[in-house]
Design a protein that fits this description.
The protein is of the alpha/beta class. About 40% of the residues lie in helices and about 25% in strands. Strand 9 and strand 10 form a beta hairpin. Helix 1 packs parallel to helix 5 and helix 3 runs parallel beside helix 4.
């Protein structure tokens, strides 16, 4: 290939998925107990079991955006070798990473005026970004041009539907997403927020789900109402330390779609959604539905 396709580890694709499509993943940093770690698709520096075990004990987690020097070093290694670069990563609606990337690219374009560097705001995150990258990676692996890949990413990013239900209200409280009072009442009443991703890549509360038994039916309802040509398409199911829920949702999707890919949510996103989160991602009509 005359160009390289790059993303970041907030996409939550695993090592097998990354190797299948040949995309490069820039690791993102998180810190726990005064130690910093980089998260890779193979979770080589801290396993997800260890991460969620620590998180459930109340250990504070801090996450960091990809910095200017990292973008400079990664991109330049390919530009020097005569390759063009296309990157899409964590949504600008959730992180400053996109803006930092553009700062680096501005300087790199002055240094390498004959090379193409394309940066796309995914308006997606976590497994939503993972699904976008996975689908685009299939195109990339087939040998499309960099311009064709950019057009495909820009088209598909507006068609991906993201729905997830959060289990750990305490983690949302610690992250400042909800108040301590809301967390207390939510736990007492077994209320779980249904969160969507809007057209800018930001998060919004779509509904309050009462009781664990309603989690999977709610996610399935959105899939059934919004998916486009479901039996011809891949569906992503993502979870944060909730393998049982992911397998149950996968089972319910059997026969309703072409294929189900399961993603484990890594530390970069897991730090904010907490243990137990369950999500469904699919191609469909991306609209805000606030109940």
């Amino acid at each position: 290939m005359e160009y390289i396709f790059i993303t970041d580890s907030s996409c939550d694709l695993n090592e097998k998925q990354v190797k299948e499509i040949g995309v490069e993943v820039i690791p993102m940093e998180f810190s726990m107990e005064d130690k910093s770690y980089l998260h890779y698709p193979d979770a080589r520096l801290m396993s997800l079991d260890e991460f969620y075990s620590k998180l459930k004990t109340g250990v504070t987690v801090k996450t960091s955006q990809v910095n200017y020097n990292t973008f400079m070093n990664v991109f330049e290694s390919y530009l020097k070798a005569g390759k063009d670069v296309i990157y899409t990563g964590i949504s600008s609606g959730l992180s400053g990473t996109f803006n930092t990337c553009n700062m680096a690219v501005k300087d790199l374009k002055e240094k390498y005026p004959d090379r193409k560097i394309i940066v796309i705001d995914s308006i997606c995150d976590s497994a939503g970004l993972g699904m976008l990258v996975y689908l685009a990676g299939k195109k990339y692996a087939s040998g499309v041009s960099i311009e064709e890949l950019a057009d495909y990413i820009n088209e598909m990013k507006t068609k991906l539907c993201h729905w997830f239900i959060v289990e750990d209200l305490d983690q949302l409280k610690r992250g400042g997403r909800i108040s301590a009072v809301s967390a207390t009442f939510g736990k007492a009443l077994q209320i779980k927020p249904l969160i969507g991703v809007d057209e800018t890549g930001g998060l919004y509360n779509a509904a309050k789900i009462r009781g664990k038994s309603n989690v999977i039916p709610t996610l399935l309802k959105h899939f059934e109402n919004e998916a486009t040509n479901p039996k011809e398409n891949i569906v992503f199911v993502a979870h944060a330390d909730n393998k049982q829920g992911a397998l149950e949702l996968q089972k319910e999707l059997k026969g309703k779609c072409k294929e189900v890919q399961i993603c484990d949510i890594g530390p970069v996103i897991g730090a904010h959604v907490g243990s137990g989160m369950l999500a469904i991602l699919f191609v469909g009509n991306r609209v805000n539905i606030e109940n």
